[in-house]
Protein: Para-aminobenzoate synthase
Amino acid sequence: MRLFSVTELPWMDPWTALQAWKAASWVAFLDSGGTPAALPGDERARWSFLCVEPSETLVSSQDGVIRNGRPVTGNAWDHLQDMHARLLPVEHTDLPFAGGLVGLASYAAGMALEEVMSRHRAETPDILAASYETVFAFDRLERRCFRAGKVNLPLLPDKSVLTPPNSARVHFQPDMDREQWISAVREVVRLIGEGDIFQANLTLRWQAVVPSNFDDLAVYDLLRQGSPAPFGAFLRGRCGRNGDRPFSLLSASVERFLSLSREGIVETRPIKGTAPMGGNATETLRLAEQLRRDEKENAENLMITDLMRNDIGRVCDIGSVSVPQLCEVEPFAHVQHLVSCVRGRLKSGLDAFDLLRATLPPGSVTGAPKKRAMEIIDQVELSARGAYCGSVFRIGRDGTMDSSVVIRSVERCDDRLRIGVGGGITWLSDPAREYDEMRLKGEALLKVFGA
Structure:
């Protein structure tokens, strides 16, 4: 009996399908944009994937590793590779993702890989992942829907209820006030001046208690509509010492971290540098040209691009790493960013897990040199980053991978909500201006909660 197949289904909006699975304790929705017009003509805005009914789950934290609800021994990365090896091989398909592992590697997971000790205790799982044998793939460009996996799993479960989600007001508190933030920026600038580092990404967290009527899908809907993005994600799983507490991640990320093709081509697209869209085409072009010439923003992007070139160079063939795009302005839904691109060819015998372990956490949210920047970040920040500045990844049955940097996100872990914001600090940074820019980013997310 053939267990795996790809079947075309009648078109359904992926958001409607996600709502039908709102009662699921484990679900992964990889969302290519809040609106079809988010990035017209861009392949990054084409496909969305809904992953349900995992065959295996993994929650790794400082308290140990829990696989399929039971404590286990061993390294979380080894368990991930074993979970991937147990997946049913896929027949040839043109779908970019036909099932596999979907998960989160938090910032703390990257710290561990770089052997940086933290003074903060993180409640967020270091790694949270699940094996999804069945995926619903939505081609938003051609309005086609496919089921890859179990032939008898319906897109809408029998008892699905498409009720409108409800949102609630939440009162958040920042872990740094204005003076603390400015003092932290000055300390980073001082260390740059002493030659410790070239730059660092400084962040803070807003935190709140989860209200009794909290609806994570409602919040994600508001987030994705306000910030349509090519690498959005809604993950729901478990957290806590025993892996029995609710966890969800709501991300509206615009930044690809790493992709790995069937042919072994690695690509990363670091983003540093932001400008608003103008009120008309002429103003937008003027602001784009201003961003293109901005000395500070270009310096940030150049250093992170070099860092990522070094990171992927650890696992790519010598001479294969190139930078086909450097500091080019790309338009997104509401802003323009400076985006670079680094490519290489993965060494024979290595896989997506080796690539992740060589590069986490993302260079665009750490600094340069990476390890020393992370040490300084831990000294000046006042709380653990959690999921923020980590990576959401999908690794297909065929070994391909795509991943994003967790930014513009909301995290729910047990009874706490967290929102992270930040920005790159260089020698040219003005502390007061950095605070204003950080607050602006934070307010855009806080508006989701009516704050």
